[in-house]
Every structure is written in C-alpha cells, then in structure tokens.
Amino acid sequence: MQTSSSSSSLCAIVPVDCIFNGSNQLAYPCSFNLGLLRGSRKLKISRLKAGFWESIRSGLIKNNSTQVIEPLSSSQEEEEPLPEEFVLVEKTLPDGTVEQIIFSSGGDVDVYDLQALCDKVGWPRRPLSKLAAALRNSYMVATLHSVKKPAGEEVNNNKKLIGMARATSDHAFNATIWDVLVDPSYQGQGLGKALIEKIIRALLQRDIGNITLFADSKVVDFYRNLGFEPDPEGIKGMFWYPRF
Amino acid sequence: MLLQGNFSLPFRSPLSLRSPTVHHHPRRFSFAAAQHQYAISDEDLESRGFTLRRTIEDLNLDHLNSVFVAVGFPKRDTDKIKVALEHTDSLLWVEYEKTKRPVAFARATGDGVFNAIIWDVVVDPTFQGIGLGKAVIERVVEELLQKGITNIALYSEPRVLGFYRPLGFVSDPEGIRGMVYSRKKKK
Prior knowledge:
The complex is a heterodimer of chains A (244) and B (187). Chain A has 244 residues and is of the alpha+beta class.
C-alpha cells in the first residue's frame, strides 16, 4: 500500500476508528458525529458513505484496489470507544464497483434478511417472531453489511446482510455469544474474526469481564485464536438433556 | 422427578461458520405439567423452614454476597450485583425463615426464547447436603422450560460436575466446548 507522502495525518490507510475520535486532527465532517446518526437505517448508511468518500478523496491513491482498514494497536483499542457503525473493509471490484463491509453494533437487523442468511449457512428455520424476540432480548447484536456503489454513481442504498453475531448479558458480569454466522460467499476473509473481535471489545468497554460461548468442536480452534479458552481451570460447559 | 424424554435441543448456539451443525426441530412439550414432581416439594421445604422466593424483593444483597464469598466466589460489588439481577430472566432463592437470610440461590440469563445460561448457583455451606441446591436447579429449569426455552446450559466447576449430572446436565455434548475469553491469552 502506498501512502501519500504529502498528507501526514491523513494517510491512505487510516484506522477508521480514529475518524470517530474527537481528538484526531482530521478535519472531518460533522456527519460523522454518531449522535446524528439516528433515523432510518438507509439514511445512516448514506451519511456514512458520503462523509467517508469526502474524507478519503484527498488522501487516496487511485490505483489501490483494496483498502483494508486495519484494527488499531491493542493499547489504543482499549481506550477508544468503539463507534456504533464503521467501515471495516473497502475494496474496488474489477468492474469498478466499490464494495464496503460495514460493521454495526446498533442491532438494527431485518429478521427476514437474517432468516435468509441463516438459510444460506444451512441452519434450520426458526419462527420469525422468536428470532425477532431473541434479537430484542440480546444485549448486543453486531452485524456486517455489504454496501456496493457501482462506478459512476454517488449514493446508493444497496446493502446486504452478510454476517451477524449476538450476545446476551446480565449487563454487569457475564456475556454469552450466540449465533455467529457469515455468508458463505464472504467467508475466509477474516470477517467472522472481525465480528467477534469487535463484540469482545465492545463488551470489555462496557466492563463486562466474563465473555463466554459454546463452540462446536469444529470451530473451537477458530475461537481459541481469538482468545477464548476451552474448559478454563477445568470448568465444563453442560447442557440440560441435549438431544442429538 | 425429572423426566427423561425425547425432546430436542434445536437451538444451542450454532457457532460453526462453515459447516452446518445438525439440528432438530422443536417438539411440543407435553410433559411440562408433569414436571411439578420435584425431589423435595414446596410444602416440604416450607415445613422445614425454607421459603422459595422468585424475585429480588426482600433479597438482601449483602447477605447474598456473603453466601457467594462463603462458597469461594470472588467478592463482587453489590451495586453491580443489583444490575445483574435486574437483567436476569429468572432467579430463585431460598430464604431461611429463622434468619430471613438467603441460603440458596440461582439465576438464569438468556434471550428469552432460545437459550438460557444458569449462573451463580450457591448454597450456604451450613445448609449444604440437604437438597436445597437440587431444589433450586429443578425449579429454575422448570421455569425456563415453561417459557419454551429448551437450550439450557451452564458452566460447572470440575468439583460439582457430579451435582449437575443427576439433574440432567451433560458436559460437552457432541463435542461442544464451553469457552471463556481470556485477555491474557489473546494473540
């Protein structure tokens, strides 16, 4: 990745989280004040996109096809509050379309989209009303959406749910992560990892120290690599009359 | 007591990203009514001087905290305990009539429809061994089942695995592992 030598603070690769930090010197448009990002989901996304384009226009080298916005160093991570919504990955496809993967912890999920995503990964159908209730009753729902901007167009509302994870919690001590899924066409790119990392970070920032989950044997290593330990001190996960 | 049965566990946390895990369709629970056959009945407990309580009303958090400490939990801030209890789906405590103090406790959190985890299961050491722990777990499980929640899990210290097993809990079913995030171990 080339970095523009002229702009010092505005590098080609800017940790996106920095953009939301008040102390950063970037002359950043107010539309990124998250307080303003209420209202409809569509409006949220277009404001995010508009501001983002303005910000990178001055610093981007045109030839970059993929921009991965790297996570911050761990010390910064712990101090800076995680914004509710930000661009995780951006890339330019061969046809000039620019695709952004947007992370959001706002919990605004369309249950129909979610059901379609669950279908895609092969999970059995669950009643929509129960899905909606489960989401409502979750402490945190994190999503990944793909937003595509075809070349030559300014703003669009073409967003697709491609990943989700949620956590239940008692708001004080414990949280449990459930239902982690990533669209099969988007797997293998580190998106699941990013989802979990962000959720963990958000939970830790809310001072919820005990973060737990139950992992199928095939994904134990996936979570191990993210900092989870199976059976710590011999503590075992147990289920009431599981049937298989 | 608890009925063995062919009820399924459809919605344990499916955390596999690539390969779908096997799930089963939920069954209707017709045994729910029969569940009220606890090892020790409510009346039995009452006659021995124990009252079952299901709300935090009248629950002295300092007394609860001392039970936690007595069984070896780290001492926690009572304000935080209050927040936790206010965001808990079900809880049950046993009040000893003579002292009005909590002598057994358990609570469950979850999403209210699919999953629940039981936390903070304690019995005051002075009152252990007489069936209070079992009484509390049986009733918490029953309440969750009544709500339609069939995926009921917990994290058990190794020394009490033998307590949970006869109550119907299975560890690592089909290789599912309970995992906990550790900041120290982060790569």
